[in-house]
Specification:
The chain has helices at residues 15-35, 142-160, 165-168, 199-210; strands spanning 178-183, 189-195, 218-220, 223-225. By secondary structure, it is an alpha+beta fold. The protein has a domain at 142-225. The chain starts with 14 loop residues before the first helix and ends with a strand.
Amino acid sequence: MEPKKNPKANVGRNSSLYFAIGLMLMLFLTNFAINYKTYDESNIDIGQLNLDEELEEEIPITQQQVLPPPPPPPPAPTEVIEIVEDEEEVEETVIQSTETNQQEKIVEVKQVEVKEVEEDLEIPFAVIENVPTFPGCEKGDNNAKKKCMSDKIQEFVSKKFNTDLASDLGLSGRQRITVMFKIDKSGEVTGVQARAPHPGLEKEAARVVNLLPKMLPGKQRGKAVTVP
């Protein structure tokens, strides 16, 4: 006996497509049912705006407070006049007139002497016209006197300076000492200032420079001046 079913007919061939379409339809209906809302129109009142009514502003009535007038000032004290008997005699000062006449003699005024105060000028050693002269350096021009003076001072210091002082102070090697001084108008050494690595060396250097002999002072335009 031959079967009546067509072997080409497959009922479950599109079952997955139908299942997807049905699932989408059910989801759409479910979403619509959840989000569906209804309103009662009788409970909605949006109100009504009436622009014809004027706003009336209530202005409070104020009353200015009247302050009482200030009290009058106290009366001024009455001056008491005391009568004092004039028993003391007062000498009146007589102011003499300063006017003169043609008959009055003119007082002769003696000549007033004006003394000029000499300024204590300081001219640097490098630019002075006539440099200070160390004893024994009188010959030659300024350059020769400068060189002679430098040699004489160096020789004088080397003889008078205590060369063993540096080792006694615990110093080693060569020590640099700078001494500045001035030669005043009379040729004396003044204003000695020394700089050294140790105060003992400064004191010794100042002592030796103060022993320098008196010199001929330097001159600028023929006048003796102080030369640093």
